[in-house]
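Researcher: Final request for today, and then I'll write up notes for the group meeting. The sequence and the SMILES for zinc ion follow.
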Amino acid sequence: MCRRGPDGLISLLFVKVPMQSLPRPRSLPARTARPRTMLRFTPTAWAKLLFLRDYGSTEVGGFGISAAGDLLLVTDFVLVPQVCSVVTVAFDDVAVADYFDQQLDLGRQLEQVARIWIHTHPGNSAHPSHVDEETFERVFGRSDWAVMVIVACGGESYARLRFQAGPGGSLRLPLEVDFQTPFTASDQAAWEEEYLRCVRSQPGFSFPEDTLCEPRSLEDALGFDHPRQPRRQRHRLPQKPV
Ligand SMILES: [Zn+2]
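Model: Predicted protein-zinc ion complex:
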């Protein structure tokens, strides 16, 4: 309440009200903040994915390794032997079977190592191509769930979960780098060795270098504001098998 004083100013009167006389607030249901379903990467897994994306001038593909008990947290990105062009990735079937065996030998469950398919696009668009869609359907269509992740050189990313439960369906997933999870240090020497061991360039199938995008740095991808670094020398694929 307020009243005008002798000086013409309005002053406020605060009146004490016994608590008992206040209407009791209706008991509201506790607000249950429904966590958004998103695909998270550990910083190390994300850094490795960007390193391998930018190492050569072709696509590269592999599997995301999920944390035990948290299947939408990617803790590693593992390449399998493959032949790549700027628009395709073809895995070696025997190598994929070997990869599953190795992962199971490490004590991981199949759902941790075979449900998140990740590949890169050397251009700016992360939108799945019709080949991507066909592959996702053919290879993962009978899995109870699977995620297709595409990370483009220009920084765009795409993730979609498809699931069989109930009537089945699919759901776009936001991507996040989760700094709140434990993560290991980067190991670019090991990542480079993995790239050179696994990735072969499809001969006679390339775009002119100047049609490909400029890779973004990890800091750019994470949205950090920092002075632009000089252009990083793009790594070249070896012309001969190593
Ligand atoms: Zn693609």
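Model: The helical segments are 43-55, 93-105, 110-113, 130-140, 188-198, 218-221. Confidence is low (pLDDT under 50) at residues 9-15, 221-242.
Researcher: Thanks, that's everything.
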